[in-house]
Amino acid sequence: MDKEQHIRTGRRFPMNLYNKLEEKLRNKSEDTQEAAEEAKSEKAEKKEDSGLIKCPKCGKMVERARVVRKKYVCYECGGYFRVKTNNRIRMVADAKSFEPWFDDMEVSNPLNYEGYEDKLAAAREKTGLNEAVTVGRCKVFGDDIVLGVCDSRFMMASMGHVVGEKITKAIERATELRLPVFLFCCSGGARMQEGIVSLMQMAKTSAAIKKHGDAGLLYCSILTDPTTGGVTASFAMLGDVIMAEPGALIGFAGPRVIKQTIGQELPEGFQTSEFLVEHGFVDGIVLRENLKKTIHFLIRSHRGTGKKTYADFGPNADFHFELTEELKEQSWKSKPRSAWEKVKAVRQVERPSATDYMDHIFDIFVEAHGDRGFADDKALIGGIGFIEGQPVTVIADLKGKDFKECQERNFGMPLPEGYRKALRLMKQAEKFNRPIISFVNTSGAFCGLEAEERGQGEAIARNLLEMSGLKVPVLCILIGEGGSGGALATAVGNEVWMMENATYSILSPEGFASILWKDSNRAQEASEVMNITAQDLKRLGVIERIIPEFGGADKKTAEAIGGYMKEHIKEFLEKYDGKTGEQIAQERYDRFREF
């Protein structure tokens, strides 16, 4: 799968996109060391584990040693086995770097529930663990993190007061040490034998995560099979980034509880990782083979330091865009277009999309998913991009390249969940001091029944409110259509640029003509009086820069246009070096105050 296909259809964290970044972030010796350590641990496990084991997904008897080599993934069906704590730590931590914390915490029976001590003792004997969660500090490719691992073998990793206390203390210590936290979640929910005391752990762990987040630190949860009940309703779903393993059962109330409580049968695949991605609750699905590298990527792309440095470019910082003679000639020969010709041009499905330019601007781009409330709107994508080593948050409208994709992306007309996803990612960018680059190309916000039911107006208004006060630089680039409030909802920038033939208007020319002249057939006439072209808006002071298209945006010119954008984006970022968040937000306020 190539990069464009991933951006359009992918839901996983793809390691093929990370290759360029990895060259900058770590050297080959670390790769060699990791491979040697992994081979050593696999050799030891292969010696220990022999014979056959039943796959929990397909039910086939498979060779244990082969499953171990594949990181406990069935080689027949790809199904995921549940993983012991020590094996999980080996998967992600540098060799011998894990330092366990709080292992000697006293286990008690707060409600004096009969037989509970015996059950705890049996679980300790069976697993060799003190409790259902193990926490501590380790290194991932040399970077320090706090790691937590829940183990389903210990009373289905249910959350009692010791589990809640260990997680809370680990997060508190991570806050003191200013370290990111990665927590592998699995659980049957709250521990029944501890009753209301268990319930209180939900609030306690959540409060610790809030303080950790307020300190500008990264918290990531990785949801494994199963993650249900009070754990789902607390620390599992509060990550800045939420990942999930393929096929994991994830839900507040499990299928058995739902059936026995209200008699409702859940459809197949209803509470899976894949379901949660589509419905906006999980950023993406991560394969075990990519776990360690994904964690490393997230560490490096979410380093909130409190220092406002926005031009930390890597070794290719000497890049300068140069126009080829062919494009120069093409640009000279191009004739000025009328407003109506530009309207028609930007509506063409063949016109390059944001992802076409992003290929030439960013080293990599990794998409995040969902608004954490309803769905993952495919009309508006967002994620993290690197421009010569500098992480930025990227937001982009996408219309689609063919009829099928246009339908999937709702022809680039976002629903409320699209704007809420964009806002979630922009607020996260503010937390981690990442500049924001927004590519705008929409005929407008979707105006159907479902949009109104889910609060389209409120979602757009909330974006305008929050974007106005963001304490990081925001650059907005109109690359095609800029239609009404649907475009403005992601275009409240410190600077706004437009491509040479792009348009930006209060509404479509057809709508303008229909409202003012009661005749939508006068759309061409309306386009000429609406002042919607880049040249009109530059003259009115609505935009700061016009991006040349070198004869017209198409496959031939996309690289040149992207190169021009990249050079000037770097200049934009350099302007904000050393400025405080308050200064950046005030400049944006002053910009719009003048209109």
Q: What would you note in describing this structure?
A:
- The protein has 595 residues and is α/β, with parallel strands linked by helices.
- 42% of the residues lie in helices and 17% in strands.
- It contains 25 helices and 18 strands.
- Strands 3, 4, 5, 6, 7, 8, 9 and 10 form an eight-stranded mixed β-sheet that branches. Strands 11, 12, 13, 14, 15, 16, 17 and 18 form an eight-stranded mixed β-sheet that branches. The chain has a two-stranded antiparallel sheet with strand order 1-2.
- Helix 20 links the parallel strand 15 (474-483) and strand 16.
- 47% of the residues are buried.
Topology at a glance:
Layout lengths: L2 H7 L9 H7 L2 H21 L3 E3 L6 E3 H6 L15 H8 L6 E3 L14 H12 L5 E8 L2 E8 L10 H17 L3 E7 L7 H20 L4 E10 H4 L8 E4 L5 E2 L3 H8 L10 H6 L5 E2 L5 H11 L23 H9 L5 H8 L7 H8 L2 E5 L11 E8 L2 E8 L5 H6 L7 H16 L4 E7 L6 H5 L2 H13 L5 E10 H5 L6 E5 L3 E3 L3 H9 L5 H7 L4 H7 L4 E3 L10 H17 L6 H13 L2
Parallel strand pairs: 5-6, 6-7, 7-8, 7-9, 8-10, 13-14, 14-15, 15-16, 15-17, 16-18
Antiparallel strand pairs: 1-2, 3-4, 4-5, 11-12, 12-13
Strand proportion: 15-25%
Radius of gyration: 26 Å
* Count of individual beta strands: 18
Helix percent band: 40-55%
Kindly name the structural category.
alpha/beta
- Unreliable runs, pLDDT <50, ≥5 residues? 1-10, 14-35, 44-48
Shape: elongated
User: What is the helix tally?
Assistant: 25
Output mean pLDDT.
Answer: 89
Main beta sheet: strand number and arrangement? 8 strands, mixed
Amino-to-carboxy terminus distance? 46 Å
